[in-house]
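Quiz preparation item.
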């Protein structure tokens, strides 16, 4: 009888070549993620023998989402749910509704969730979902039908102990409520813990809506101390004025910073003396965009990247900071509210220009941290007050950021590589402890 291999048995570097859509030269978001893993591999020591695990999603589901439109016709949309890694716990990550969503993008976003969840040490693996649809073209009824059919289709792989979706671009508390209800109907009992980011009256958590922006503000404030920047006099430019960008802008403005430029899908606005953020938030709530805000001047979208500022917060979509604009950015610090906003080429340019980049995988982890609190509260059916939630969030973010900062100093690497070092070691350590089945 052959001896069972020990957990220390090395695996072949690549037992089967990666298919083309998984390869690093496919420079969509997934290719960017693979390059980031390659950069960190030399720092993983013995655990690097397991690194192949990080280069393939564990499970990827593509679903057809047919719905009746209000005009009586039937429309089909493509939906995805990807579980990148579940070594540390159930999959966790948002659901994006956007016309440009692709499987490659969802794979990358799921992988970044694995890294992020490990970086702040919440007991989750990484997952993400999406539907290729522009929700702005749908009526409320159509949006509900798309959400419910998608939830039903991915219902075979999600669940409170398996994989827990949350909001992302163009999804919100109402969509989480429909997802929770659909899953619960199919199960035959109410399962509030199947999604996070729900309305507070349905098992949601206080503080969840602002959590990602609050995390962005917290790590930004901590980093500012290290580089001697005074937040109360800083000028801030924000791309994306939704959940993340809007909240981050509000908190920076409350701390005294001047929010001088904001860009969203509708255009770019600028005000040297600082925008009135509460008024701008009201304007966006009423009109859906920053465009048309009276107390600001309009500037060309491309000029956004050249605005004189100390802090730049990309909080919209991927690959916005790229080789084409990284050389023109004036900020001393970039806080990645969005997932994957900076390309590897831009990372190198910014590093050379001494611009400090606080990477997504730590900077925007506040959302999933409070999602974790929501999930815990749902299981125990005992809800905390907002002050407790915010205090716990700030503590976790500060501790995680301090750890990452130290690793960056010790290894003389960027904060992105340092965060990947911390996170990949945690994931691969659990991988090694669990071993391979069978
Ligand atoms: P949202 O839908 O609330 O807001 C998105 C914003 O981006 C809007 O202001 C929109 O106008 C803007 N935008 C869209 N296309 C644009 C374009 N081409 N140019 C400029 N602006 C554009 O979404 P959100 O939840 O705030 O998410 C924003 C980013 O933050 C995404 O990358 C998301 O993955 C990431 N993120 C969100 C959370 C969360 O808790 N919501 C957590 C972590 C990371």
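Solution:
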């Amino acid at each position: 009888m052959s001896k069972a291999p020990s957990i220390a048995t090395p695996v072949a570097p690549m037992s089967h070549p990666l298919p083309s859509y998984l390869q690093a030269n496919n420079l969509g978001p997934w290719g960017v993620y693979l390059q980031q893993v390659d950069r960190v591999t030399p720092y993983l020591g013995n655990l690097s023998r397991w690194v192949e695990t990080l280069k393939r999603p564990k499970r990827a589901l593509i679903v057809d989402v047919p719905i009746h439109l209000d005009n009586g016709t039937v429309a089909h949309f493509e939906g995805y749910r990807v579980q990148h890694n579940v070594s540390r716990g159930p999959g966790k990550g948002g659901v994006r509704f956007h016309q440009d969503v692709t499987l490659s993008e969802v794979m990358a976003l799921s992988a970044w969730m694995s890294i992020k969840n490990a970086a702040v040490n919440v007991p989750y693996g990484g997952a993400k979902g999406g539907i290729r649809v522009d929700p702005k073209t749908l009526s409320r009824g159509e949006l509900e039908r798309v959400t419910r059919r998608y939830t039903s289709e991915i219902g075979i792989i999600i669940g409170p102990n398996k994989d827990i979706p949350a909001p992302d671009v163009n999804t919100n508390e109402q969509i989480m409520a429909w997802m929770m209800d659909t899953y619960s109907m199919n199960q035959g009992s109410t399962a509030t813990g199947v999604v996070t980011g729900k309305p507070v009256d349905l098992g949601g958590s206080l503080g969840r809506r602002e959590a990602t922006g609050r995390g962005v503000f917290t790590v930004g404030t901590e980093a500012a101390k290290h580089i001697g920047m005074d937040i109360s006099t800083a000028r801030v430019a924000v791309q994306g004025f939704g959940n993340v960008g809007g909240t981050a802008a509000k908190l920076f403005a409350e701390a005294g910073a001047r929010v001088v430029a904001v860009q969203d899908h509708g255009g770019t606005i600028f005000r040297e003396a600082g925008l009135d953020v509460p008024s701008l938030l009201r304007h966006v709530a009423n009109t859906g965009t920053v465009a048309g805000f009276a107390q600001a001047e309009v500037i060309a979208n491309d000029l956004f990247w050249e605005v004189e500022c100390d802090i730049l917060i990309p909080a919209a979509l991927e690959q916005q900071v790229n080789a084409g604009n990284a050389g023109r950015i004036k900020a001393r610090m970039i806080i990645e509210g969005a997932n994957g906003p900076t390309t590897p080429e831009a990372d190198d340019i910014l590093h050379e220009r001494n611009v400090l980049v606080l990477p997504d995988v730590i900077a925007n982890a506040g959302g999933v941290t409070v999602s974790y609190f929501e999930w815990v509260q749902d299981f125990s059916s005992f809800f905390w007050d907002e002050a407790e939630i915010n205090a716990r969030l700030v503590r976790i973010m500060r501790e995680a950021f301090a750890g990452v900062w130290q690793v960056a100093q010790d290894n003389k690497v960027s904060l992105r590589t340092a965060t990947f070092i911390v996170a990949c070691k945690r994931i691969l350590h659990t991988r090694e402890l669990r071993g391979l089945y069978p």
